[in-house]
Amino acid sequence: MKNCFFTVLVILASSIYVFGQKTKDLADMVYIPSGSYLPLYGDSTKIHVNEFLLDRYPVTDAEFKTFLEANPKWKKENVKSIFADASYLRKWPNGDEPSYEKPWDSPVTNVSWFAAKAYCQWVGKRLPTTDEWEYVGMASENKANAAKDEQFYQRLIDWYSKPNPARYPSVKNGFKNYYGVYGMHGMIWEWVYDFNSILLAGESRADSGGNNTFFCAAGSVGSQDKENYVAFLRYAFRSSLKANYSVSNLGFRCVKNKEP
Amino acid sequence: MEIPFLNLSIKKYNKMKISYSILILAIIYLTSCNKKDQQGQMANDDSDTMKHAMMEHGEMDHHHHEGMEMGEASGSSIFNLSSVWKDQNDDTVLLSDLGGKMSIISMIYTHCQYACPKIVADMNKIKRELDSSGVTGVNYVLVSMDTKRDDPERLMEFSKENNFDQHWTLLTGDPESVMEIAAVLGVKYKVVNEVDFSHSNLITTLNQKGEIVHRQEGLGNSPDETVMAVMSGV
Question: Are the Cβ atoms of A217 and B184 closer than 8 angstroms?
Fold first, then answer.
């Protein structure tokens, strides 16, 4: 009986702790109302995006460290190469913690799709789909859909041309968009759940044949916006990724379905 | 049960609701505590949330387990995926069940009209060459990306339509499992209109430990390279 009572106390304590974690995370999420957008690749049909909750900030080094403490199989020394390649957490000495002073609120990078996915699941969320990400990515500071905003587009080009810093600034210092979400542009690339759904073949000028047997039923769709260079960059980058890749300018954030 | 805190504001209601559920659960556990400890140990011991663990390890009736006893899969083996599948006989299958033999594995869907029949034809080419060289202990595996329509019954139908012998394993699983195995094999796929798929065409060779040793991309290619990869590994 004594054993049981102790176990119950432990359960209660850990439930409250886990619960505390979850409410903290939910508090940092932004409600994105449903809408539609025109994806870069596709026919000219707008895609509907259901309402959802999006992390206000990219996942930070501090948050990822708590994940590692609770899930040691994701530590650098334990992770399987099929889930994360050799660059996993490369910037953390010993893979233990970041090398800079606390607070560790830079966006975590050098994490694979599997690691990012595992983190989101651990906090009761999931990775965003490409549609969800792109839909929110359309927003400038004061417009939900700044797709046709020349000035905003120019700023994106400038941001995307900047070299990667050795250490990213705090996630709280990023570009804040119309929804109040930080860092969608100008900070890091971000994993999406269906990164492997982009079937890009080489451009037809240089490549001769061969590629047309690589994909089935993909059809050939041109882009809907040939001027949207930054969107090209994002799609091309995602298409080049493999699930266990860890890249120094690639991090992530999570989403959650909106409960009815 | 009279609780003094019940006149909290709406904001705190949800918090208290969940805390009380936990409290009640704990009490239930306490009262059933003197029974023998339930088997709570999942096959892959990880500290993921309960919900996630339950999703992955829903059915553990492994009454049918071929393949060698895997202590700990090597780092680059796809057997590290803990996803649970059903085959065309409606048996539960883990990827590690394929261990001990080399495997030729591809992703298709049975309603696919164009490329998938060609993928199957390419795999048959490989099988014919290997069979004629006496290399018959090889798994031929098809994983369906059509989680809605390709249930075990449909896979059996497809199996008969294609005259697959006992060396063929056709697998169906939940969308998360399909996404993971595609990610690990490097197969790209996109659900179009919920029932059609754009996908890359890829035949992967795994060694006995589930490590990728060769990839054959495209359609209608010569089986020679794949055959060589299998022969040198067997």
Answer: no
Q: Are strands B84-87 and B189-192 parallel, antiparallel or unpaired?
A: unpaired
Rg of chain B over all Cα atoms, to the nearest angstrom: 23
Phi, psi (rounded to 5 degrees) for B215: -135, 130
Specify the pLDDT at position A172: 95
* A113 Cα to chain B: minimum distance (Å): 9
Dump pLDDT digits (tens) for A217-247: 555 556 666 667 888 889 889 989 999 999 9
Structural domains of chain B, with CATH: 66-233 (3.40.30.10)
Residue A47: exposure state from Cβ atoms within 10 A (0-12, 13-18, ≥19): middle
pLDDT, mean of residues B88-93: 97
Q: Which of B186, B190, B219 sits opposite A242 (nearest CB)?
A: B186
**Looking at chain A from residue 184 to 223, which residues have their Cβ under 8 Å from any Cβ of chain B?**
193-194, 196-199, 210, 213-219
Q: Is A104 helix (H, G, I), strand (E, B) or coil?
A: coil
Q: What does the alpha-carbon distance between residue B197 and residue B191 come to, in Å, rounded to a whole number?
A: 5
Report the predicted TM-score, pTM, of the whole model to 2 decimal places.
0.78
List of chain A residues with pLDDT < 70: 1-2, 8, 10-27, 42-43, 200-227
Nearest to A121 among B52, B197, B198 (CB): B52
Shortest distance, CA A152 to any CA of chain B (angstroms): 31
Interatomic CA distance for residues A150 and A225, integer angstroms = 13
User: Residue A55's CB: how many other CB atoms inside 10 A?
Assistant: 25
Please say whether the structural domain A28-202+229-257 has been given the CATH code 3.90.1580.10.
yes
Residue from B177, B175, B206, B180 nearest B106 by CA:
B206
pLDDT in tens, A54-76: 999 999 999 999 999 999 999 99
Is A199 in contact with A218 (CB distance < 8 Å)?
yes
